[in-house]
Design a protein that fits this description.
- There is one protein chain.
- α3 packs parallel to α6.
- It is built from ten helices and 17 strands.
- 41% of the residues are buried.
- It has two domains: 198 residues, Alpha-Beta Barrel (TIM Barrel), CATH 3.20.20; 97 residues, Sandwich (Jelly Rolls), CATH 2.60.120.
- The radius of gyration is 21 Å and the shape is globular.
- With 343 residues, the chain is of the alpha/beta class.
Length: 343
Amino acid sequence: MTPKFLIDAASFQGTVNWWTVAIGCSGGWEKVTQGTTYANPFWAAAQPAMAAQIAHGFTPGAYLFMEAGDGAAQADWFAARAGPLPGFGVAIDAEPSFGLRRLAHVFPEVLTAGDEAAARATIARATSVPTLAEVRACKDRLAQHYPGKPVGGYLPHWFWGEQDTTFVDYLWASDYVLGQGRPQDLYQHVVPAQWAPYGGRAPALLQFTSSATVPGVNGLVDCSVYEGSDLVTLMVGAAAPGLPGEEEDMGASWLPNARVAPLALPNGVKRLRFVGLGGTETLKVDWIMGVSPDAPTQTVDVSYAIGAAGLPVPANCTSARVVRADLPAGAADYPLVGIAYVF
């Protein structure tokens, strides 16, 4: 098989020209979040730029960087900031952070911390080590936020050892060759041993360098390779019976920053998906059955699991009202929740 190259970028790379990257790479990843407090400031621009390349055969992905702690909460934080992600892969990056070079790579803000306390807090975060149980909890919650979508795991052998790797839908390994340069040149030094199974499965993706030079990226960048025949199915998945397929998700957007949000439902919509609800938040959805001011309503409580799977729209329903029922009236800021119409 012809090798397919994918970069993975974070705030360290700044603004990536994804149109240019897609000329020489088959896919690419952008970091969205870290833990439950950090969000990549470049994601908002990267997401539409990456999505625009899907029509040209490019497979984009969004990943979260795990910290030690509540894995489900980290998945909630990611989903609220990543949104519905139609056409994207989703993965967990689970590895320790250590050393000044890695610290500056993962947390570039430490270089500009305004005071010693801020720098120390960043360093403490950068030295956390996620556990198998925490990563598994994160994966399980992501599967609820993104039903039917594979969840990959970047679980490098040098850190993960022989712990179980079968709980993720595909394994993304890490074993570097020496030198820096174009992906196709560095790839010539990859040997079969770098693809060796561990933890119960063989890698599907191999990150083989952190020193690739790729047009469209400022400076050096991590690069991985896929040697299979169907990168889209690996990362994005195929629609399963009874689940909203990736090709069916349309109109992805955000709920407005308000406790009550009216929605006009497009013709033919069958299901609403809410992505990014916290594990303790419940929405109330009022289905409005008609156009008159006194039209009858049907009220449904929506938890994060129901919202991610999709809420069936009643027949003859033309609009809806979404109420952030668990959040106080008059709040100035509400957590992000993505919404997608499924036809």
